[in-house]
Amino acid sequence: WRSPTRQTSSDKMQALGRQLVCSSNSRAGVSIIHKVTKQSSQKIQHHQQNSRVFSFPHRRAFSSTSSVSGGLLHHEWVIGGNVINDTNSANSRDDTNTVVFLHGLLGSGKNLRTLSKKITERNPNLSALLLDLRGHGSTSTNASLSSTTEPPHTFESCANDIINTLQNLNLVGSERSPVAVVGHSFGGRLALQYAHQTIIHNQNRLSSDGGTLQQIPHPPLHTWILDSVPGQAHASVHDVIQAVSSVDLPIPSKKHLQTVLTKEKGIDPMIAAWMTTNLRKSSCNKGFTYTFDLDVAMSVLNEFGKQDFLGMIRDVGKIHHLDYDKESMEKEKKNGRINLVMAGKNPSWTEDLKKELELIQSDLVSKEESFLQMYKLPEAGHWVHVDDLEGLIQVIEKGGLH
């Protein structure tokens, strides 16, 4: 879910858009078109010995380049349980390992502040980097950042934004690359996408430049996917976006939005209350508008069914077992891991889906243990970091972040 719309990167057109919103009521006017694409898990093909590009069937092959084409994302540091305002000072620290946090659709990095504060407070050797994904939060509202996140708004583009932002922060190479990535819902899908793309980028560079991996992030040692269910988005997500997009802009007050969403649109009161946290003052100070871009949100939502979630998990697992560089991969085989956290109260985790994941888990088990670890929080709904924060932290600390 989420997001208002950047019509163009032109400042003149943006100003015109603001005038239209302020001069008269208008609707976001986003139509819901979701093409359901049923994709099965696909098996990885071993690359040819002298190939420069690591290819997968029916999936984009990434070329080996020293930089990745992507946008720049707003970021926020949390260290020792506190938000750090001096980002330059936080970024220059070498005494902590970085963990990247990725929020869900229509949210922002702030949604994961409490989780990141608790983790960094209890683990002083870790620092948290909270990102606002394309079309969301301050990345959306900051024209200089939003102008860098051009279409297409695909999962690959979103992951490239993350990689490019880490490059910009010099969080690359063996010493400074993030050791883990934690994503909730949509953010969990991107955490997997990011792990998949960084592994392939690094493999391509190993085969093309003799193993120099200092210019791009290394794959994370741990990828934490928090209640991200494979396949198309749940129908309720479409309902929320459709409801939000039909509300007249500017919105007079937060209470007005909550009333419209619950009384007129039938949205759950808790979701409606949360949606009021995604408002900002309109440019003319006559009410509020959204902090997210609805066009980007709709484009991303239409990508859900296209992501080969299970296929990528299988790919990542098999890549960890490849023998392309025994010495450099020994650590990856031992530590590189995907950790999937399922909300016990989320009915989307069907028995068939869990059996398919267990099959992948058993197929790719190593001498020590499977690279895919699955956890269940019985009393939590989809918002696992809210419903069972302590239980989630215990699971993460048990599974590891570094």
Written overview of the protein:
The chain is of the alpha/beta class and 402 residues long. It is built from 17 helices and 10 strands. It has helices at residues 11-23, 87-91, 113-122, 137-141, 143-146, 155-168, 173-176, 186-209, 235-245, 254-264, 269-275, 294-301, 309-320, 326-335, 351-363, 384-387, 389-399, and strands at 74-79, 82-84, 97-102, 126-132, 180-184, 222-226, 279-281, 288-290, 337-343, 372-377. The strands form 2 sheets. It has an 8-stranded mixed beta sheet with strand order 2-1-4-3-5-6-9-10, with helices on both faces. A two-stranded antiparallel ribbon has the order 7-8. The two termini are 31 Å apart.
Which secondary structure elements does this structure contain, and how are they paired or packed?
Layout: H1 11-23, E1 74-79, E2 82-84, H2 87-91, E3 97-102, H3 113-122, E4 126-132, H4 137-141, H5 143-146, H6 155-168, H7 173-176, E5 180-184, H8 186-209, E6 222-226, H9 235-245, H10 254-264, H11 269-275, E7 279-281, E8 288-290, H12 294-301, H13 309-320, H14 326-335, E9 337-343, H15 351-363, E10 372-377, H16 384-387, H17 389-399
Parallel strand pairs: 3-4, 3-5, 5-6, 6-9, 9-10
Antiparallel strand pairs: 1-2, 1-4, 7-8
Rough shape? globular
Order of helices and strands: HEEHEHEHHHHEHEHHHEEHHHEHEHH
Radius of gyration from CA coordinates: 21 Å
Q: Give the N-terminus to C-terminus distance in angstroms.
A: 31 Å
Structural class: alpha/beta
What summary fits the major beta sheet? 8 strands, mixed
Hey, roughly how much beta strand do the residues contain? 5-15%
Mean pLDDT: 80
Percent helix range: 40-55%
Quantity of strands, as a count = 10
**Uncertain segments:** 1-66, 323-334
Strand order of the largest sheet: 2-1-4-3-5-6-9-10
Summed up, the helix count is: 17
